[in-house]
Amino acid sequence: MSVIALDDVYTTLQGIFRKEFGDPNLTIRRDMTADEVEGWDSHSQVTLMLACEEAFGVRLKTREINGLENVGEMVDHLIRAISRH
Amino acid sequence: MIAPSQTRQILEDLRAIDLMSRPFEDLRALSKQLAREWDDVKDKGTPIRLSLLAGFTTDYLTDLLRLMLMRRGLAAEITTAGYGQLVGEVLTNGRSLANNPDIVLILPSHRDLRYAPRPGCTRDEADDAVREEAGFWVRLVEQLPAPAIMLSFDQPSERLLGELDGFAPGACGRHARMTNMALFDRLPRSASLIDGEALQARLGRLWHDPYLYTLCKQPFAMKALPEVADTLAAQVAATLGKSRKVLVLDLDNTVWGGIVGDVGSEKLELGPETPEGEAFDHFQRFAQGLARRGVILALCSKNDQDIAWSAFRSHPAMVLKEEDIAAFVVNFEEKATNIRRIAETLNVGLDSVVFADDNPVERAWVHRQLPEVMVIDLPDNPALYAQAVDAAKPFPVVRLTREDLGRAASYKAVAIAKSASHAADDMDAFLKDLRAQAVIERIDERSIDRIAQLIGKTNQFKMNPFQFSLEELRKGAEGVIAIRLIDRLQDYGIVAVAVTDTEGDTLRVSNWVMSCRVFSRRLEHLMRQLLGERAAEAGARRILLTYVPSAKNGLVPAALAAVGFSEEGKNIYVSRAAPPPTMASHYMSVNDMRIPATCP
User: Fold this and answer.
1) What is the pLDDT of residues B354-383, one digit of tens each?
2) In the CATH scheme, what is the code of domain A6-84?
3) What's CA B101's distance to the chain center, in Å?
4) Contact check, Cβ <8 Å, A42/B216
5) Where does chain A have alpha helices with state H?
6) Is the separation of the CB atoms in B110 and B153 below 8 Å?
7) Do B211 and A62 touch (CB under 8 A)?
């Protein structure tokens, strides 16, 4: 099981969000939902997750990608996927 | 509303020469930025309306397609039908076709094949199935309100019959393949095909991404999108008559290996004897193939015209012949002017021109001066040149005509241009932008071999045939000036050398050479400045050198005149110590690595 700091996950994830939504000042929070971010729709959801998979070197399960409520859940899934590897 | 500078920035970004080799994430970010700022950018292209009907999700493709079209000068409004509505949309003349499109793109995949037979059927049954299949799609295309571009069927990801799948009656792979051939024969003249199997082959493992298909019904990987989009964009451009017409090639290290002005035509790398020679042979054959199917070839090179022509005529392995070439502009002027002249001569617009040159500085210059010209991002390895030109899809074809095949000849109004003025202001901006740094090298064992070699090998910018032994260079090291040039594109190594000594009030320059790789960079102005400084240090009031004309160094007298020398007696050139005040700036920062002579 690999060890990863939560801060690192947030920093990397924030970079992915900023690129996807074209906003260099976007700051993510655990309880941030799709409604709060302009352009965060089901299409962006897929590209976000693919970018995460590439950045963290993991494969997420399809059911983990569907039905995400907020950034916190994304982070939880990512950490789970990282520890699977 | 966004600032005009931001609009310019997007356009500049999406026209970048190396755009296609950038990471997918960057291209996606740029395409989304373009989508956000579309209203401010769209009037920078020719407006067209596209309708996109696919058997899969086109949500990701649309942004990239708009980007690739804009790169080709087309500002597209794109309407799409939802996933799975390809056929229904046509049959009901649906909403996505109602906006009077200029072109309809039909993008099915093998999943949309409707009459695929079962393994075990007879050949006749398989042939019937192909007829049915092709007939269905042809009727569909015939109902469209506008010219169509159809993607032919790809091969399925899994092959139930293994290696038989593409061949045996009843196999899906064969059905797709045979249907594609039937479509080519039967589609109306208003429609053209994109070869889906060739696209699939180019993209390899990116083509089928079953994971992504389950997620969002896009059958290929995200990383396949730029190539898919560019392929569609090229065919759209071709359908609108916007294929390019002219391929302008550099000579040295583009169509042959080596500098003909330096090594002479006998020593060029060309022909099957060496790997490099083979690579250039391949590229010439590719260019000739293009010429014979209607692309106009032109040559644009910084060279001596007679030397270049004689290489063309006399080298035994030369593939390209004079009759393949419609325009030949060989001189020492900057290439943007020369390319403009080629376009005028051939009576085509700059947006019909494609330029291939091994030198990244020439590419950057032409791209900057003539943004309409498509500049090919040639890789370092000449074996990959033909692929690089092909991958850029500069000459997409909808159908071949008799005129295409005869065009090369009709354009053969060979015009050789000789004189034009430099656009001085633009040249200055260009040189500044390169942020060149000149390193004045120490003369030590590491550099001395290269210095001797440069003096020996250079033929064009060279004062006279005098050479120096390593021993002579070591002894006279104090008077040797060697410059390495580095700019934001590359490190050229040591490219200019002057060997001097002082006698009374005279700084004598025994020889002065400069590599042709850095012509037009005003490096000779820097060297002239350094010679002036050297003279001042040594208490000399004048600088003297001997220019001995040869078959190859004819460009020297003009260069000398530009930096303040005049001929005083046969072959003797003299200047005051200080450079003339009229000498244009070289815009280089100077990094002096020499140990001052006073150091212990």
Assistant:
1) 999 999 999 999 999 999 999 999 999 999
2) 1.10.1200.10
3) 32
4) yes
5) 6-21, 42-56, 62-65, 71-84
6) yes
7) yes
